[in-house]
Amino acid sequence: MTAFDEQWNSQAERILKVAGSDPSGYVGRLTESEKACLHFISSETAKVHPDHRLKDKDFLRFLRACEFNQKNALKALLADIEWRTAEKPWEITLEEVRGPFDNGNFLPVGVDRRGRPTMYFFGKQHDPKMSKQSSKLVLYTMEQKCREIEESEEESFTLVFDLTGYGLKNSDSAWCWTVISRLQKSFPERLGTCLILNAPRVFGLLWSVIKPWIAKRTSDKILFVDGDYQAKLKAFIADDNIPVLLGGTMDITPQRYIAQHAALSAGGCDRAG
After folding, report:
1. Residue 10's pLDDT band (boundaries 50, 70, 90)?
2. Closest to 166 (Cα-Cα) out of 132, 209, 204
3. For residues 264 and 270, is the Cβ–Cβ distance under 8 A?
4. Which of 153, 129, 119 is nearest to 29 (CA)?
5. pLDDT (0 to 100) of residue 218
6. Residues 64 and 188 sit within 8 Å (Cβ to Cβ)
7. What residues are paired with 195 via a beta bridge?
8. In this predicted model, what pLDDT tens digit does every residue of 95-118 receive, in sequence order?
9. What pLDDT, in 10s, does the model give residues 152-178?
């Protein structure tokens, strides 16, 4: 292992540790002022939505995202409840979003070295003509993953964007903005780490437009990985949780994934909510 490899692995280890090292702001790790904020947002939410099923950790995600500004957090939470009531994202079906899977664009499999669910996006397969369906796919998957880790200590996910071969034909600022906006509004603090692999220059232009709209707390979790990106990826995710497409040993493709899950869907196991 070269000195550079050791430096990269140390950086990866530090990032993975930082992902769960906040001294406070979580259930069981609250300061007195944070407890007061939690009481405020939970009691105020109950006044408007007495039948809500939110837990303390749900309130705390909104509070952390708003740096414990309780009024901003409450406003964001109530807006999300209103959006969910109107849009019902848990009712999205697999058949509605399978296009990007068939296209080879998306693969939600495996976990990272912290045990967080991992989702892979393959940029060169993204078709802007499927922008709306691809946006809905993200909501569908996030709803599913949130349910899967409901009782887990981990509350976040790792996203991997493979931009090898990504070009102008794949560039889709509308999709990027829609997804980032909704993730920040409805899934705050769900992003643990985002790895962007082999980003071409054309993506740099898109990134310069997108970045100012991303909260610093979120953008700090985004890491660009170039050079021998497949080897570097293994510092974050073990071989057996990386698809063969990215140099790992997990023998699964988006097309095979959707075929397997479509069969389950036919048996009535499709809904995310």
Report:
1. confident
2. 204
3. yes
4. 153
5. 87
6. yes
7. 160, 223
8. 899 999 999 999 999 999 999 999
9. 888 999 999 999 999 989 989 889 888
157-162 and 106-107 strand pairing: unpaired
DSSP 110: -
| Beta-carbon count within 10 A of 19 CB | 18
In the chain, DSSP assigns E strands to: 106-107, 118-122, 157-162, 191-197, 222-225
Q: State in Å, rounded, how far the first CA of the chain is from the last one.
A: 46
> In whole angstroms, what is the distance from residue 5 CA to residue 105 CA?
30
pLDDT of residue 20: 55
Mean pLDDT, residues 61-83: 97
| Local structure of 160: helix, strand or coil | strand
Q: What is the Cα–Cα distance from 91 to 23, expressed in whole angstroms? A: 37
Q: Which DSSP category does 1 fall into?
A: -
Q: Could you give the residue ranges of the DSSP H alpha helices within the chain?
A: 3-18, 32-48, 56-65, 70-87, 94-102, 131-148, 173-186, 201-210, 216-219, 229-233, 254-266
Those residues whose C-beta lies under 8 Å from the C-beta of residue 81, and which sit 6 or more positions away, are 45, 49, 52
What's the CA gap between 243 and 130, in Å, rounded?
24
pLDDT of amino acid 22: 65
Global pTM?
0.88
